[in-house]
Design goal:
With 166 residues, the chain is mainly α. The chain has a single domain, classed as Arc Repressor Mutant, subunit A. Helix content is 64%, strand content 7%. The protein is elongated and about 55 Å long.
């Protein structure tokens, strides 16, 4: 089978499987008061599992720094994140989830786990293990090619071609 035929078959399958593989909250899981952009920012901060800088968040979301700052302002206004100056470098502002932000992120993760469990259950134990192994191998190889940790960018989801400082 040709590479292009395999790609077409994969695309057809991904169109159906996409919602099960989504690595961030679905639109129906996002509170309307924060919006999709702010939800992506919150999910990215949660995925980091540590305090991250505002610039690092902007890079992960592939948005200009002022846009990332506005998204964080929305999240702060809803009590979901907090910004603090880095005690080691006063120029750097770090972002972390509040207890309410952690609660919302945990609910999103639980919903994501249910979607993945449904997919894996359909496959059966052997095929599910093979799928996980293949995805892990692909992720490791793609990460190696990029030359950097892609964890934050992957958690933010796909974006268009926006300039970082547009």
């Amino acid at each position: 089978m040709q590479k292009s035929q395999r790609a077409e078959r994969l695309l057809s399958s991904l169109a159906i499987l996409g919602p099960h593989l989504e690595a961030r909250p679905g639109r129906h899981e996002i509170p309307s008061e924060i919006g999709v952009g702010a939800a992506r920012a919150l999910w990215t901060v949660a995925a980091a599992k540590r305090r991250i800088g505002v610039g690092e968040l902007a890079d992960a979301l592939e948005v200009p720094l002022p846009r990332a700052s506005r998204l964080l302002g929305d999240l702060e206004a809803h009590g979901l994140v907090e910004r603090r100056r880095d005690p080691q470098d006063r120029r750097r502002v770090e972002v972390a989830l509040t207890p309410e932000g952690r609660r919302l992120a945990a609910a999103w993760k639980a919903a994501q786990s249910l979607r993945l469990h449904a997919l894996l259950d359909v496959l059966g134990a052997r095929d599910a293990e093979n799928l996980v192994r293949i995805f892990e191998r692909a992720a490791a190889r793609l990460g190696d090619r990029s030359g950097r940790d892609r964890t934050l960018r992957a958690s933010a989801g796909p974006r268009g071609d926006r300039a970082r400082h547009a």
